[in-house]
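S2.1 Query sequence (Methyltransferase domain-containing protein)
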Amino acid sequence: MEVNVLNYKVGVNDTYWNRRTNMMYYQYIDFLVRAFAINAKNILDVGTANTAYIENFDWISDKYTLDISKPYSSPNVTSIEMDFLEFNPENRFDFVTCLQVLEHIPKVDEFAKKLLEVSDRLLISVPYNWIEGSEDEHIHDPVDLDKVNKWFGREPSYYIIVEEPLRDIKKGKHRRLICYYQDEPVNYKKALQNVKEGYTKEIKMNSEYGNSNQNLLLNTIDLLRKEQEMNHEILETEFAIRDIETRLKELRNENKSKRQKIKALEDQIKKQSEKIVLFRNKQKYCKRQYTKIQNSRAWKVTDPIRRIKKLVK
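Output structure tokens follow.
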């Protein structure tokens, strides 16, 4: 992928796109667009580069792409070549996607707020906790849900972490975070029904598919839903671990601060103890000198004089 950070994105070649068309990540995107945009009349993809996934949403009549340079276009897709931050459409779009873009954007908070302005329904994705510096063009890694929430100023209506099978986990590039935003609460039952209806219509339109393929697709939907539930449990566990680690760090800092205070008090005790020893040594010295004077011949000779002085007083 070639990326110009100052220009946000982004051009990808056909080889890049062809290698990624079968990624699990795109299967989830397709699934969620069907779930939440089944009745959309128009859709805008922001930061599309020249990737063609918007063509999959063939039930949406008006499809638009936007990028600062060479957005994807076709007889079915209208492209808009401009800076998204300067984009001011007359009407809001029914649905907007912005996939694997935000990690490239310098003014990411402003960009995220702009996405919420152009539609009531927004689907975004970002690399999830990719190691900082693992991709030169990513300027915000690592990205997690907390960071995305700060960008958008709100929590998503729905989110999921997607893992790619057969990816090297050690490289830390096997997961993506997908977030969906809409103003009203999500009706999950209706969303799932939308997906089933959408796949069923496609099967009926293509006569080469039979009931076996229909059952296969519906079973796949159930498997995807179960995988989503497991990924949510993983995410919640990761959050719990992070909270524990944060508390452990706080306790360690508290212990460090307390140890420093204890050390300071111990130093004060040591100094005061040294003073006490010094004073006691001086006291012993004075007593010895006093005793020495009392036992001296001069003290005894002058004793009558001291007695007379006492009587005079």
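The chain has a mean pLDDT of 82. The first helix runs from residue 14 to 20.
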